[in-house]
Amino acid sequence: MVLVRAARDDDATAIRDIFVRGYRRTYPTLLSSEFIERMLDESYTAERVAKEVAAAPPGWLGYQVAEEDGRIVGAAAGGITAPGAGELFVLYLDPDERGRGLGTLLLDRIAGQLREFGAGEMWVAVLDGNELGIPFYEARGFRKVERRRTHGSTEADDAWSWRFSRLI
Ligand SMILES: CC(C)(COP(=O)(O)OP(=O)(O)OC[C@H]1O[C@@H](n2cnc3c(N)ncnc32)[C@H](O)[C@@H]1OP(=O)(O)O)[C@@H](O)C(=O)NCCC(=O)NCCS
């Protein structure tokens, strides 16, 4: 059975592991390995994930996880970014568990949190060309709004993301 819940302190290592495996499986043809490893080292060290497990509302609503038979199989987080608007900051699954509806469970969880904090629209940035992500958001009603340089990237990385939005 799959349980979607707020993360606990002792989930930090499993959450980092999901991000490490997710990044390395999703982006190898889209981003340089240097950029992938830099993002993982900057944003998703076990220490940083551990510090950010807890919510700091409304801007950060805390990591949420999908757990199946005691194992973490996906993680996501979101927060309020402007009055009436929220963002899904991150969503990854164990790469071997895609296509079973787990992403939808986590997306719905974050949308529910954002609604509780007054959001009527939800945003997400997805790397241009990410065919493991873009079709998912389009299937769940998100539409492309604008293309921007990827957060955390430099001009040299030449990485671009689509910002998608949807009413919630
Ligand atoms: C994106 C991701 C979280 C989606 O989770 P998931 O559990 O695989 O998706 P679901 O099984 O809930 O699928 C929901 C819908 O999206 C569609 N979908 C999902 N991934 C798809 C893909 N790569 N291509 C086409 N359709 C896709 C499904 O067909 C389904 O639509 P339907 O219910 O209308 O048939 C997951 O695939 C993942 O971790 N991808 C790699 C990492 C990534 O890109 N994360 C997002 C970064 S912003």
From TrEMBL:
All residue ranges annotated as the N-acetyltransferase domain in the record: 2-167
InterPro entries per record: Acyl_CoA_acyltransferase (IPR016181), Bact_Acetyltransf (IPR050832), GNAT_dom (IPR000182)
MF GO annotations: acyltransferase activity, transferring groups other than amino-acyl groups
Pfam families reported for this sequence: Acetyltransf_1
This protein's GO CC annotations: ribosome
Keywords associated with the record: Acyltransferase, Ribonucleoprotein, Ribosomal protein, Transferase
Highest taxon in the source lineage: Bacteria
Stored PANTHER family: AMINOALKYLPHOSPHONATE N-ACETYLTRANSFERASE-RELATED-RELATED (PTHR43877)
Name the record gives this protein: Ribosomal protein S18 acetylase RimI
Organism for this UniProt entry: Actinoplanes derwentensis
